[in-house]
């Protein structure tokens, strides 16, 4: 699976923006792909993350207006069964308010052992310097109105301090340019 955002309306204050997704037709990554295009009601869908789960491909992104105003994180499920078959696919999404932390990471299946039948998808993200947020996403492809994203459960962790907030602070070798630490969000992967 390969994904890339598309921002044709980035210069305006309106959307839509898109996530272009390619799913391999075979187990050969150099072969042919099924192609999909999912739409979002924002000028920017930024820092998107994907996770593979038994019932869906789970996706998170941060939505922004064309002026850079944070709209909030968006948590989505893509119809994995249809996508693997090359059939038309839909998504179910839940946009959270702008007061929410940046988008959490979707859980990603490792190995050949599948989750139990009907297991919800999970998203994990930062909350405070000593807690993480865990969301559960239940998707019902037969009746998408029954799909739900639960309020986050807080998980206590050992307290930590971000490398930097805002301005770049991670020193690189000569000539010594600074990189953003991005310590305000989890990075890939939640296995």
Describe the structure.
The model has no long low-confidence stretch (mean pLDDT 91). The protein has 191 residues and is mainly β. The chain is built from 1 helix and 14 strands; from the N terminus they run E-E-E-E-E-E-H-E-E-E-E-E-E-E-E. Strands 8, 9, 10, 11 and 12 form a 5-stranded antiparallel β-sheet that branches. The radius of gyration is 18 Å and the shape is globular. It has one domain. Strand 2 and strand 3 form a beta hairpin.
SSE layout and pairings?
Blueprint: E1 2-6, E2 17-24, E3 33-40, E4 44-52, E5 57-64, E6 70-78, H1 80-85, E7 91-95, E8 105-106, E9 121-128, E10 131-138, E11 148-149, E12 153-156, E13 170-171, E14 178-179
Antiparallel strand pairs: 1-2, 2-3, 4-5, 5-6, 6-7, 8-9, 9-10, 10-11, 10-12, 13-14
What average pLDDT do the residues reach?
Answer: 91
How many domains comprise the coordinates?
A: 1
Overall 3D form = globular
The rounded Rg comes to: 18 Å
Identify low-pLDDT runs. none
Portion in strands: 35-45%
Question: What is the N-to-C succession of helices and strands?
Answer: EEEEEEHEEEEEEEE
- Secondary structure class reads mainly beta
């Amino acid at each position: 699976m390969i994904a890339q955002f598309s921002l044709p309306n980035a210069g305006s204050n309106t959307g839509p923006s898109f996530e272009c997704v390619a799913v391999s037709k075979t187990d050969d990554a150099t072969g042919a792909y099924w192609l999909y295009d999912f739409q979002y009601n924002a000028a920017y869908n930024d820092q998107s993350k994907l996770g593979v789960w038994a019932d869906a491909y789970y996706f998170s992104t941060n939505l922004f207006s064309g002026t850079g105003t944070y709209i909030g994180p968006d948590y989505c499920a893509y119809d994995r069964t249809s996508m693997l078959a090359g059939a038309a696919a839909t998504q179910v999404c839940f946009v959270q308010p702008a007061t929410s932390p940046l988008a959490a990471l979707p859980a990603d299946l490792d190995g050949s052992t599948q989750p139990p039948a009907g297991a919800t998808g999970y998203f994990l993200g930062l909350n405070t310097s000593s807690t993480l947020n865990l969301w559960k996403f239940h998707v019902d492809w037969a009746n998408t109105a029954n799909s739900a994203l639960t309020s986050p459960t807080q998980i206590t962790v050992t307290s930590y301090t971000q490398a930097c907030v805002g301005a770049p602070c991670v020193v690189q070798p000569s000539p010594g340019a600074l990189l953003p630490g991005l310590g305000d969000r989890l990075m890939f992967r939640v296995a």
